Amino acid sequence: MSKSLPADSVGLVTPQSIHFTEPLPLASGRMLDSYTLMYESYGELNASKSNAVLICHALSGHHHAAGYHSPDDRKPGWWDSYIGPGKPIDTNKFFVVALNNIGGCHGSTGPSSINPATGKPWGPDFPKLRVRDWVSSQAALADKLGIDVWAAVIGGSLGGMQAMRWALEYPDRVRHCVVIASAMKLTAQNIAFNETARQAIIADPNFLGGRYLEHNTLPRDGLSVARMIGHITYLSDYAMGKKFGRDLRSGSFELGIDEPIEFQIESYLRYQGDTFANTFDANSYLLITKALDYFDLAREYNDDPVAAFSQAKAKFLVISFSTDWRFSPERSREIVNALMGANKAVSYADIESNFGHDAFLLPNARYQQVFSRYLAGIDTE
Amino acid sequence: MRIDLNEIQHWIAQGSRILDLGCGDGTLLKFLIDNKQVEGYGLEFGADEINACIEKGLNVIEQNLDRGLGNFADNSFDTVLMTQALQTLHYPHLVLDEMLRVGKECIVTFPNFGHWKARWYLATHGRMPVSDLLPYEWYDTPNIHFCTFKDFEVLCREKNIRVIHRQVVNEQSPAFLKEIAPNLFGETAIYHLSK
User: Fold this and answer.
1) Any idea of the CA torsion for B70, B71, B76, B80, to the nearest 10 degrees?
2) Coil, helix or strand for B3?
3) Domain interval for residue A56
4) Are A49 and A41 in contact (CB under 8 A)?
5) Residue A174 lies in a domain
6) Could you read off the pLDDT of B27-81 as tens digits, one per residue?
7) A143 belongs to the catalytic site
8) A238 and A143, same structural domain?
9) What is the mean pLDDT of residues A235-252?
10) What is the DSSP pairing of strand A24-25 with strand B162-169?
């Protein structure tokens, strides 16, 4: 990225942090006495504070959703294709807030933060979190920003779970709920992938029961494998084949040559894994995947999703992607059916895409149309 | 608005709960919401149509009607509508069963293939009719199950479906003709049904 930023970018942005001294009661029964949330905002909050949109991040996401931190940034925020002037989440119209959830590792209080009680990093002692804890901390952030009601709460994947939980926990504070490539609860297959990733981390000799920071080390190999497992599940067979095929990065198929053969996909996954291992905290990964596994929208409503959604007052937009096998369109249709069963306003589109779960972050003409038209119809007066 | 859509409103109760199958760009649903204060959902498969519905602020659900209505409970809607879509379905008779299960009442409209123009075209040209109402060639048409007014009557009798109202409407030809011989002079058939 050079000096001139794209015209449809929110431009240069600076993350901000807010410290909360009011304790946050957690679903586990424990209390977080004080905590910090890191967030970014794009666009302007209007006088009546009725144009605020909350972006909830997925597993490895954070507060930097759009724009650039410096003119030399190689890449913009993680959802830059969808947030900006003239984009589906139009910053000419909306005031957009994106944050790093508690338990994360990008500036908000999490396992790599210092536990005030001990003066050491929290590590494995950081309280276990549920999706609802993120939602209640986000509500505290909304209070601080003076936002009584979000025009929309929007999230993909794990972010979609937060958006749905918002609609049930704070029905009067959400006017529109946009749930993308998400589910009311994970399937056993999904939990299996998460557990395999967690075991890769725990099995790393440098994990040291989660107290690696105290020993000045990091379980990089385990975290890298965990990310590789996750990454595979976010892609589709097509996307991998198209991008890498069976191309070799080194070696050859010729007989009698001892040089090791390395496929492009192998080196790509290792690169992704290594990059992630250098920027993400292993305890955060364990904590967040557990919250994902335990999420069950309707558990406390007698396992009846219709009863659960009866709490909601928001209007919903649900979007899925045809080749997403991690959060398949079927999971989105379950959400839609429950919403219709509860007689809630809902629209649903299943977007044709070849790119699996990752599709929700990628440019796609039909996705952009559905998303833009829905958000354009939101009244912010 | 299409003439069949205009007729339908008389059979829809104020404030009732509606499911519109193959709702297209949502014209009818929007009209019924504005004029009859109904609530409900449109089901649609076409991307452009879904976009148009979202633009109108309607509840539109992407769903392929050929896969049935298994996601809806029995009698969960006052009226299930399907205008000019029956002939595009793979198994129209099964979808009709589903409509009657999900809705307390149903309204179906379809082009009457027994209309004299279609008969005349086939008789004189020896080819599948192409007209203003049916502007497709046989190979690229979305309409795969044409029927006549009479055919539909037979199906309703076989299935013991109660016909509450029946009507044929024309965009142009004189009204009295369709009263005398609906199968010959009615362009569009409208049926109001219940179990």
Assistant:
1) -70
2) helix
3) 16-185+296-376
4) no
5) yes
6) 999 999 999 999 999 999 999 999 999 999 999 999 999 999 999 999 999 999 9
7) no
8) no
9) 87
10) unpaired
Nearest CA in chain B to A379: B57
Residues A173 and A234 in one domain: no
Residue type, A214: E
Helix (H, G, I), strand (E, B) or coil at A75: coil
Residue-wise pLDDT tens digits, A145-167: 999 999 999 999 999 999 999 99
Residue A3 lies in a domain: no
CA distance B43 to chain A (A): 9
* Pairwise CA distance, residues A322 & A328, whole Å: 7
Residue A89, min C-alpha distance to chain B (Å): 15
Only one residue has tokens 């009067």, namely A172
Taking the Cβ of residue A250 and every Cβ of chain B, the question of whether any pair is shorter than 8 Å is answered with no
Q: Check which CATH number belongs to the domain holding A245 and give it.
A: 1.10.1740.110
What region does A190 belong to: left with phi over 0, alpha with psi -120 to 50, or beta? alpha
Q: The domain spanning residue A162 has which CATH number? A: 3.40.50.1820
Q: Kindly state whether residues A145 and A42 are assigned to the same domain.
A: yes
Q: Which residue has the tokens 């014209």?
A: B27
CB B53 within 8 A of CB B23: yes
B18 touches chain A (CB under 8 A): no
Strand, helix or coil at A103? Answer: coil
Domain boundaries, chain B: 3-194
Query: Are B62 and A340 inside 8 Å of each other by CB?
Result: no
What distance lies between CA A139 and its chain's CA centroid? 17
Contacts of B25 in chain A (CB under 8 A): none
Residue burial A273-305, b: 16+ Cβ < 10 Å; e: rest: bbebbeebbbbbbbbbbbbbbbbbbbeebeeeb
Which of the residues A113, A157, A182, A320 is marked catalytic? A157
Instruction: Assess whether pLDDT exceeds 90 at residue B118.
Output: no
Residue of B nearest to A320 (CA): B62
Domains of chain A: total: 2
Whether residue A84 lies inside any domain: the answer is yes
Decide if A305 contacts A184 (C-beta within 8 A). yes
Rounded to the nearest 10 degrees, what angle do helices A220-234 and A282-294 cross at?
40
pLDDT band at residue A132 under the 50/70/90 scheme = very high
Q: Is the ipTM of this complex over 0.90?
A: yes
For residues B79-100, average pLDDT: 95
Q: Which residues of B touch A376 (CB under 8 A)?
A: 55
- Distance CA(B117)–CA(B132), nearest Å, equals 11
> CATH topology for B3-194?
Rossmann fold (3.40.50)
The mean pLDDT value for A11-34 works out to 97
**Shortest alpha-carbon distance between residue A127 and chain B (Å):** 39
CB atoms inside a 10 Å sphere around CB B168? 25
CA distance A136 to A246: 47
